Every structure is written in C-alpha cells, then in structure tokens.
Amino acid sequence: MDKFMAEAIRQAKKSLSEGGIPIGSVLVKNGEIVAAGHNKRVQEKNPILHGEMDCLNNAGRIGSYKDCVIYSTLMPCYMCGGTIVQFNIPKVIVGENKTFEGSQEFMESHGVEVVNLMLPECIDMMEKFIKENPHLWWEDIGELD
C-alpha cells in the first residue's frame, strides 16, 4: 500500500477514535500530501463534512486542482464526487466501494479516472462500523427514514 492511502486510512481511524465515521482522505499534488481530512459530521455536527470535503477545506486555496489526486478510504458520495468534478481533479483512488457504491459512474462520466483498490482493511473497517452503528451510517449517506 502506498503512503498516501496509508495516510487516508490513518485519517479514517482518527475519525473513528473521535466518535465519528471512519472515512479519511488526502489530497496529493506533485507527489506530496497538501491536505488531509476525515469525516467530521458527528464531531462538528456538520452534514457536509465528509472526508473528502474536510480534506479539500483543509487544502484551502491551492489554485488549480488539475494536477492533483484525491485518495479516499471509501468511494465518494455524489456530493463529494460533484466537488471532485467541479474542481477538475482528474484522479480518485479509493480504498473500497463494497460497503457504498457512491458516485463512481458519475465521476467517470465526467472524465475522472477512478481507481478502486478494494482493500480488505478499508472494507473490514466500514463493515464493522456499519454493523455497530447502523443509524449513524444511514444518516451519513442520506438514507435515514
């Protein structure tokens, strides 16, 4: 596993340790991490602070994103996928999409290269979280009744 996905996983575990949803993300530009973030919906009571959104917020204004790669432990949802498309981020590398299909087809239809690593560590982390916190998970993905 490369150091960028390892950092995204570290971010996911940080979120979990804070009582949040274990999804982490890093933004890479010119082979260097320029920002990292994790899902903070629970911690900050903010419905849009998914892992990718927190990461991009932490990056601040970096000018063009056209030479960036964003890593996420889970396939981005449509909100995050839309932001990736809007910012012209050309490549997304994800840990898995078994637990959540997300917006892969949408991103690819807008020219984003999506690489799905299907990492057992990411799958196991999300499956355990969903089993132990179904209400919080359904809220996070907008499917809570």
Structure description:
- This protein has helices at residues 3-17, 51-59, 78-86, 104-109, 120-132, 134-140, and strands at 24-29, 32-38, 68-72, 91-94, 113-116.
- The protein is an alpha/beta fold.
- It has a five-stranded mixed sheet.
- Strand 4 (91-94), helix 4 and strand 5 form a beta-alpha-beta unit.
- The N and C termini lie far apart (38 Å).
Please provide the ordered H/E string of secondary-structure elements: HEEHEHEHEHH
Largest sheet: 5 strands, mixed
Strand content range: 15-25%
Helix content: 40-55%
Round the mean pLDDT to the nearest integer and report it. Answer: 95
Question: Structural class of the secondary elements?
Answer: alpha/beta
Count of DSSP-assigned helices: 6
Outline type = globular
**Spatial sequence of strands, sheet with the most strands:** 2-1-3-4-5
Distance linking N and C termini: 38 Å
Rg (C-alpha, Å): 14 Å
Strand tally is: 5
pLDDT < 50 stretches: none
Question: Could you write a compact summary of the structure shown?
Answer:
This protein is α/β, with parallel strands linked by helices. Helices cover 41% and strands 18% of the residues.
